[in-house]
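Box 3.1 — From sequence to structure: Alpha/beta hydrolase
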Amino acid sequence: MTPAARTPFSLYPELDTTALTAFVTALESGDVTGLAPARAAEIAEVRSVAVFTRGKVTGADGDLLDAALWRHTGAQPRPAIVMPSPWTDLGWLPYAVQASLFAARGYNVLAYSARGFAGSEGQVDVAGPLDVADGSRALDHLIERSTGPVTKIGFLGDSYGSGISQLVAAHDTRVDAVVALSTWGDLGEAFYENSTRHIAAVRALLDAAAKARLSPQTQSVFDNVLANRDVQGTLRWAETRSPFTHIKELNRRQVPVFFSHAWHETLFPPNQTLKMFNELTGPKRLAVSIGDHSGPEMTGMLGLPNRIWTDAHRWLDHHLKDIDNGVDAEGQVLGEIMWSKTLEPRPTWPSLTERLERLHLADDGELGEEPQAGWTSTVLCGMDTPATVADQVVRSGYAEIAGRPKIYRTQDIDRTVAAVWTTDPTAETTRLRGIPRLRVTYRAANPGSTFVAYLLDTAPDGTAHIITHAPYTDLDSPPDSLISADIELQATAYDVPRGNRLMLVIDARDPFYGDANLPRASLAFTSPEATPSYLDLPLG
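Predicted structure (token representation):
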């Protein structure tokens, strides 16, 4: 794929660029004509205590990075925040309102466009060594221009900037706290979940960087994922760029980290971020919400009330300004329950799951309590079904946030290209909390096989909503051998209403993933007596 072939796409479809540009113009001039009263008041407040300027940060290799600085003029000691930009041609602009709010609260703030994006020189390194060095150079720039002593330092980023923020904190001992919104922990796992290529995510990243200047290595890696080449080379490339690889440094210094994520994240699936979160030993907090990538925090970028950004402010106030605001005593996890939007705090991630309920995959499409051997359910490969991850990367999540999740019509799922198992109607509300696990055995006639498992909440009329899913690919087993797949579905917090049924659907094709199946091949699912097929439900 060449840059000219990319279709322009935004990971921030609801971001009002015109409004943000007007906000920055008013920050510079003081003229708030035409702005909403709330934005005008924010500008007046920040201009009364700090000076806003645009400038350039000298990054690694001498590349100049486009930046914006909110600087207090007095000699008073104060904390500082550096904000690396998201993966967008807008560069640092999406942070304009929130950076101003931080400045009004006493912080010196520097937001900058990551190399290769917007007005910054250099080429996109995807949170590689050059980006990490840029983050430290940006911090140098901010400290040098602070008129008083810098007390403590935070890094805050959304999406791309969140991964860079974690990596800088792991390498630069000056960083005291991190806020990582819509982030990743293990980039290799995000690209190859259970050895399955996330081709829709990689295409979205390429399209969102249509105007960016990708380095030859970055372009090659993305092209290789799409073309199914050099998997090991991509994983080595991703390892360096994964905060999980550098977690020992974060733990050694006990760096406080605040994560936010979405249950139905299509770019960076939540389990790989959870792996990172659960291994952190310092102060940590995780907010998981309805929606998709950057959706839960989007309204805050426009200056509207937003609980994710409110908690980000509280997190940095506590860890950089030593404010006793209670954020350290509220539990490590805050989950938004689909679709009630109820917020459930929990002390730790493991505490979400109180017990496991095992349901066995049985003959005649039943999910029941007792194992049953000897059956076979055959799926024809090469054909998609109405069971899919989502209609669109990122955008489908905004419909979920608005209370309009995708409706799946289960009666339209062709049972020749999908295997389906269903529970009896639930006698009471089923509270799913945590990570469902699937063990299933199948026979693939050809080398290389892929399936995608979906867990649906099905109403009495046959319509359904997706709860969670996961893909699986086997590349090593010889033809016509039995393959045992043990996989984790993506984490969830979902209440299945009384009278609804849980439905497990397995098919062999989804447009979100690259599959290893040969056209018209088949996968024969079964349940050997020694290793029965089952679904473990985490209940809370």
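Summary of the box: The mean pLDDT is 96.
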